[in-house]
Amino acid sequence: MEIAEAIKSRKSIRGFLPQPVPKDVLEEVLRLASHSPSANNRQPWEVAVIGGEVLKQLKQALFEAAKSGIPPDHDIPEPPPPELYLNRSRDLARRLYGILGIAREDREAREQWALLRIRFFDAPNALIFYQDRRLGLVSLLDIGLFLQSIMLAALAFGLGTCPETSVVSYPKILRRILNIPDEKIIVGGIAIGYPDWQQPANKLESPREPLESFTRWHGF
Ligand SMILES: Cc1cc2nc3c(=O)[nH]c(=O)nc-3n(C[C@H](O)[C@H](O)[C@H](O)COP(=O)(O)O)c2cc1C
Asked: What's the predicted TM-score (pTM) here?
């Protein structure tokens, strides 16, 4: 696949076939992604690769926490975004709920969707990313690059991915089940598996702002 085509065709997948991803495929995807650049070649990424019974247990624990209304407690807090960004999120939600046929006032259906989200959209495999707590914010850039490399590499194996911060809402649960020590900061996750193209959510096309809105040219 051409690089430009890969970048354009990657999209968040929110519905998966049940068949697990073979371990050697996951290894190859992660090996490819390890070629990502990082500041001073620190390679700060650490990843829990999850499947089988452990994933079942994790999904159940996250689901129960979310269902019982425990407030999220991310290691990296997310303050409420300014209006500009909030509007983009609202637009995304409108498009997604529209495709799913969920009405604006249907709180029950929205809650069900949120619970599916925290269960990695029932993907057969999942990745959780963390890094040494002593590293600065710059290392988060490295982790982001690593995630994008994983998502692009996954395409070469017919895999779909969804990056998710909702799945790291309850770090205590992740630490307990995945044995992640307190010295690590948990950054985010990826749901990974073979896309179920029958799932309407996978038809969602997230819009992008035009080039002019985010570029400032100097010396041209
Ligand atoms: C850091 C990060 C966190 C995200 N968290 C979630 C999430 O919790 N749930 C979800 O459905 N999508 C999540 N997404 C996916 C975004 O909604 C998606 O990337 C965006 O709408 C652009 O769409 P695309 O990935 O299909 O191009 C996340 C993406 C990123 C980069």
From this structure: 0.97
